[in-house]
Amino acid sequence: MKKEPVFQKRFEDLNCCVIVPTYNNAHSLDNFLTDLKLYTSRIIVINDGSTDSTAEILERHPEFHHKFHPENKGKGIALKTGFRFAQELGYEYAITIDSDGQHYPDDLDVFLTELELRDNDDPKLLLVGDRNMGRDGIPGKSSKGNRFSNFWFLVVTGIELHDTQSGYRLYPVKLINSLKLITWKFELEIEVLVKAAWKKAEVKNIPIKVHYQEGDRVTHFRPFWDIVRIVLLYMWFVLVSFFYIHPRNKYQDFKKKGFKRFWKEDIIKSQEPPHKKAAAIALGVFVGISPCWGIHTLLVFTLAAVFNLNKVIAFLFSNISIPPFIPVIIYASYQMGSFITGKGFDWDLKLQKFDSGTDVFMGLWQYIMGSFALAIVMAISLWIVFYFLFSVFNQKQVVKP
C-alpha cells in the first residue's frame, strides 16, 4: 500500500499546492522532485523551455501537473503560468520553490504552520522564506544585492523584510492573479511583493534553511542585466509610491479616522519613544521648509526610512509647505539668508531690486542658504518642544490608575 505524503492532509485542509518553475536544472531536478513528493502530491511543475533532459525527468513523475513553454520565457512568466493554473485547479494558496537544490522540501512545514496559525479568514497573506543572508557561506554579491532590495522595499512599502529575493514563498493565488504584473524574469518576484503590499496584503518573512554552495547549483541569474532591470523597477516604484501610493494611503487613513483620532492613535499613542516621535516631526518640518520643491514627498519618505523614523508623522509635518504657507516660508527664508550673510533683515523687499541677472542669482542663493538655515532652526526648536510634550504625555500615561 502506497504511503500518503507527510503533509498531504494539511495541504488539502489549507487548499494549497506547490509550484516548481524549472529551466535546465536536470542535474538536481529528479532528486529534488523525489524528495518533494514525500511531502505532498499537489505539485505543479512549469518546464520553462528547458533544452536539457528536463522533459525526460518529468516523464518519471506523471502524478504531477505539468505545464510546458516551448521556449524559455523567464522565471516571471513561468510563475504567472503556475499561478493561473493553480487558480484553475481551485487552489487558494501556492508555495513556490526553486528546483536548483537550494531549498529544503521539509521547510514546507514552516509555511503551512504559519498559515494554520492565522486567526482570520483573510487570504491576503504572502510569506517569504528568510535565508539569513548575513551568515557565513553566503556569497558577498548575493548578500549585497539582497540588502539593496530590502532597503528599497522598505522605502516603497514601509515594510521591513530581511530577505526579499528568496524564491521559497507562499502566495495568495487570487490576489496575485489580480495584480497587473509587467515584468517577466527574476524581477517579477520583487514586483509581486511590492504590489501585494500596496494591496494591503500581509507580507512577512519566515526563517528557512538553505543549501548555498557555489559550484553546486546552476543559476540563470545574469548579474548585469538582471540587476539593471531590478534597479529600474525600483526607480519606478519609488516614483509611484512617493507621488501616489504613500500620499493616498495616508490621506485615506486620515480621512477615515478624522484629525482628532488620527492625531491620538497615529501620533500621540505611536509606540516610538518621545525622542523618535519628536525627531519624525523635526524631519518633516525640515524637509517641508527646505528648498527641495517637487521632491519633498520623495525626500521625507527616503530619510524616514534611512533614520528609521515614523513615516506617517514625518509625512504629515512635511506638508507645512502647502499653498497658504509657501509665501511665508519663502519670505522668511530670504530674510534668514539676508541675516546670515551679514546684510541684516531686509524689511524693504521689492521686486525692483532684482534688475539684473546677478541680482536674481544672488537673491536665489540668499533664499537657498536662508531656507536651509530656517529649516534647521525650526526642526531643532520643534524637536525640543515636542520631545517635552511627548515626555509629559508618557509620564501621565504611566501614573494613570
TrEMBL record:
Claim: Protein biosynthesis is one of the keywords in the record: no
Domain Glycosyltransferase 2-like positions: 17-122
Database matches in Pfam families: DUF2062 (PF09835), Glycos_transf_2 (PF00535)
Domain of life: Bacteria
Keyword field: Membrane, Transmembrane, Transmembrane helix
Domain DUF2062: 262-396
Membrane spanning residue stretches: 227-245, 279-306, 313-334, 364-390
Secretion signal span: none
Protein name stated in the entry: DUF2062 domain-containing protein
UniProt source species: Christiangramia lutea
